[in-house]
Amino acid sequence: MPPWRLITSSWPDPDFNLAFEWGLLEAVKSGKAPTTVRLWVNAPCVVIDRSGRSSVEVRLEACRELGLPVLRRPTAGGAVYHDEGNLNWTVVARREDIWPVRWPSELESLASGALIDLLASLGLRGQLRPREGIFVGGLKVSGMAFYVGRQALMVHGTLLVCSDLRALRTVLRCKFEVTNISDLLGYKLDPWSLAPDLAIRLARAFGAGLVKGTPSDHELDLAEALRPRMRQAEGK
To answer: How far is the C-alpha of 139 from the C-alpha of 71, rounded, in Å?
Structure first.
């Protein structure tokens, strides 16, 4: 298997960051981009599933008061909160690069293994609750969502490092108690300090190596074209 591409690109505009997730998936599906691991951070926003059904988990009035956009991602699952204290991670793979993995449960098992290993390296014991996320001591630190298609598969998620949990609880109707890795450790971590190790562990979980890359013009153009669709959940 050739090494997978690693990109660490993110932008100040949360709409474009989410649009790039859509564009990356489309580019990999069409064969115009390689299998990719992306590590990124986002400005404050709320992210819901592609269908918009998880908007029921969002306090829309609180989002409006705080000036937070509500954006859509290309996967199913629940609503999540993003800010600069949250490390986002994404794996988008061509079918042939990830065979015989075929099901969301398999993606969840492999990706969660990488995250649990990362937590263990920090002295924390993580536990996967299938379809709910990764917990430490009963508190949720990571969630993930999936896309399974004929040409490509996607698993992406969050890792709470030093996020604003007050804002998170204000804008979301949380199903679980959450916490930051920094709070568990008793000292503040920069999300980017965990990115290199997480990238390696994610690739290793899927049996791949990594080579540093950058977004192509095609992917950036796709993201720009898709950007207007990000806020459809708000009726904008």
So the answer is: 25
Residue with tokens 């956009």: 69
10 Å CB burial of residue 93 (0-12, 13-18, 19+) is buried
pLDDT for the residue numbered 234: 47
What's the pLDDT tens digit per position in 203-214? Answer: 999 999 999 999
pTM of the model: 0.95
pLDDT above 70: residue 170: yes
- How many beta carbons lie within 10 A of that of residue 149, not counting itself? 12
Domain boundaries, the chain: 4-234
Report pLDDT for 102: 86
Q: What b/e string do you get for 175-207 counting C-beta neighbours within 10 Å, with b at 16 or more?
A: eeebbbbbbbeeeebebeebbeebbbbbbebbe
- Which numeric CATH code is attached to 4-234? 3.30.930.10
- Helix, strand, coil shares of the chain, percent, nearest 5, are 40, 25, 35
b/e per residue 73-88 (b: at least 16 CB within 10 A): bbbebbbbbbbbbbbb
pLDDT at 69 over 70: yes
Peptide bond into 215 cis (omega under 30): no
Number of H helices, E strands in the chain: 8, 12
DSSP per position, 43-71 = -SEEEE-TTSGGGGGB-HHHHHHHT--EE
Total residue length of the chain: 236
